[in-house]
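Quick one: structure for this chain?
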Amino acid sequence: MIDFYKAQGAVPIPGVPKFDARRVVDGQRLMTFLKPLPTTSEGRKFELRSKVIGVYDKGKAGSVVETQQDIVDKATGESYAQAVGSAFFVGQGGWGGPKGSPTKNFPPPQGKKPDAVVSHQTTAESALLYRYANFNVLWYSAGNLTCAD
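Got it. Here's what it folds into:
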C-alpha cells in the first residue's frame, strides 16, 4: 500500500509552501487522447510523465495546483494521452503566489453522444464507504464514520 500523504510531499515545489494533503479536494480533469492506444503493451515500455504546470494562490480560500500527466512510449518518446488536472488545497492560500487566470471550463464535446452508458444502483452507504477509503479528513470522522457535511 502506498502512503498517499507521504508521497504528496516527496518532491517539494520550488517557491511554494508545503501543502497539507489531508485538506485537498479534487478539481477537474481534461483528458486528451493524442493517438489510439495500442491493444497490447507487449514489446513496449510505457511511462507516465508528470509535471506541475501551475500553482495559484487564491487567497484565504486556498491554493490550486495544476498538473499534467502524459502516457509516453519510453523508446520513441511518442505521447499517447494527456491528462491536465487540478487540486484545491482548502484554506492554504495567502502565501503571495500568482493568482492565476480564471478557471477553464472543459465542457463535453458538442454534438457527440456518449459511446456507452453504464448505470448502477448504489446504496445510501456507498458515498460514506468511498469517503472512508479516501482517507481525506475533510469527508468524514473516522471515529464514528459519520459524514462531516
